[in-house]
């Protein structure tokens, strides 16, 4: 009995002083294991009388239960302390201001595209997009560019097979719109998107770039309507003092065709390096829709007419923001991108 009391006192004291779960588990294995001192007390049974054995066995079992209960209570106490310590260490002060996330800004090409879309939506135009892969018929044939036409040499194309290619201009979208809308009038659409041509990349050229083409079809639509539209666009993009001028040109899908210049927004027409001393900057091509294009789409050119124009998004962005190399748009340099936060 003295051994039981001594062992009980020793074990309870060690359990009470234990401060780690791993150490507590070691105590449990040591005292309550098969080779532990508590189980070792049972060796004394052989020296006891028949009357003493039941009493001794009961005392040993009570000791086991008492130690097991003490260990479990200590385990819960240590677990609670560990949880409180973890909460204290991981506590977040929600009253402090949070870290400001780094938010990207719009790409300059998107800025120009959205500005043009907003401008033309305000004039009653619809924004229509199309597939990057188009058929030869809608990219060229419907635009009055047959297979043997020399104008095809102006647009070195990326063919997938003899009938399908990456579109060389967003005119392909306009040809679809014309066909699907015939014979309804009027039509007023702008068609933004990427276009692709077999070209060497340098400061002013890229094999992939963006266009926005506009198309208006109705009754008695003239070049003066085109000029008024483009003058309004130029003044919105480059300032209210801008003037435009038409120069004769050639495009297979328009007749007559014109190149459009805007007075330089840097020198106000006096001459500077940006406009190469001329006072004018070329921004787009345009013209009256060719009668053949109207016929192929199902319209009678005797009853309706229209105009079309095509704007290079990169060219406008380079002029508007003073960018000297088209490759800046595609190199993903965040220093370049961060320059446009103030324009949003």
Report on this structure:
A seven-stranded mixed sheet has the order 1-5-6-10-9-8-7, with helices on both faces. A hairpin with a 2-residue loop joins strand 3 and strand 4. The chain folds into two domains: about 90 residues; about 240 residues, 2-Layer Sandwich (BirA Bifunctional Protein, domain 2), CATH 3.30.930. It is built from eleven helices and ten strands. About 40% of the residues lie in helices and about 20% in strands. It starts with a helix and ends in a 6-residue tail after the last helix. The longest helix is centred in the first third of the chain and has 38 residues. The chain is α+β, with helices and mostly antiparallel strands and about 350 residues long. Its main location: cytoplasm. Tetramer of two alpha and two beta subunits. It comes from Faecalicoccus pleomorphus.
Fold blueprint:
Elements (H helix, E strand, L loop, with lengths): L1 H16 L3 H12 L4 H4 L11 H38 L18 H15 L3 E2 L5 E3 H4 L18 E4 L2 E3 L4 H11 L5 E10 L11 E11 L4 H16 L5 E8 L2 E10 L16 E10 L1 H7 L7 E8 H9 L12 H5 L6
Parallel strand pairs: 1-5
Antiparallel strand pairs: 2-4, 3-4, 5-6, 6-10, 7-8, 8-9, 9-10
Q: What is the structure about, briefly put?
A:
A seven-stranded mixed β-sheet has the order 1-5-6-10-9-8-7, with helices on both faces. Strands 2-4-3 form a three-stranded antiparallel β-sheet. 40% of the residues lie in helices and 20% in strands. Strand 3 (158-161) and strand 4 (164-166) form a beta hairpin.
